[in-house]
Write a structure and sequence with these properties.
Helix content: over 70%
Strand content: under 5%
Order of helices and strands: HHHHHHHHHH
Number of helices: 10
Structural class: mainly alpha
Shape: globular
Radius of gyration: 16 Å
């Protein structure tokens, strides 16, 4: 299941609906915004997971946070803390506000939605991404066995659908590279 599919199905679509209504977007506009914003977040996630200690940091963030609450209770996306948490996630995934602004500007060009709206939406989308990863990790049991050597490898397999950094249609090379880095650092 792709990340977009996971977000669209979260809470029967109510999380995405809440996101759109917060910014005055209809369903098609919200979908278009997500289609443009998610690749940048997925790329940032891959860069972080690929970096030394990145996989362990992500697993730690997922196990210590309550990220899934934003998908379970979409009305929480209206809370200031959702934006604050999302900005923290963005700083890890994208590195700087300049990159976030660039992502919003590029998405604006593709969707016709104002860059200011997309800049405000981006932290909430990041929060929803972490919520989706958290839910998928919980459902798979990856966060219950933090000391298991197989746990990070199984988690990587779960992430595989969104880790195609070469955009070559194959994630095998990307995942094998991450597994190799993980095993060298053990």
């Amino acid at each position: 299941m792709s990340l977009l599919d996971a977000l669209m199905s979260a809470g029967g679509g109510s999380a995405v609906g809440q996101l759109g209504s917060r910014f005055g977007l209809d369903e098609n506009q919200t979908m278009a915004a997500l289609q443009q914003l998610l690749p940048a977040l997925g790329g940032g996630l891959q860069r972080n997971v690929s970096a030394e200690g990145g996989l362990e940091n992500l697993l730690g963030a997922l196990s210590s946070g309550n990220h899934s609450q934003y998908l379970d209770n979409p009305e929480l996306l209206n809370a200031d803390e959702a934006t604050t948490e999302g900005n923290g996630i963005l700083s890890h995934l994208l590195g700087s506000k300049d990159v976030s602004r660039e992502v919003a500007a590029n998405a604006s060009e593709q969707t016709g939605i104002g860059a200011d709206v997309l800049k405000q939406m981006l932290p909430l989308v990041a929060t929803m991404v972490m919520g989706s990863l958290s839910k998928r990790s919980d459902a798979s049991g990856y966060l219950e066995r933090p000391d298991s050597p197989a746990q990070p490898l199984g988690f990587l397999e779960m992430l595989t659908p969104m880790l195609d950094s070469n955009r070559d249609g194959s994630v095998a090379d990307d995942v094998l590279g991450m597994i190799g880095r993980y095993m060298r650092n053990r």
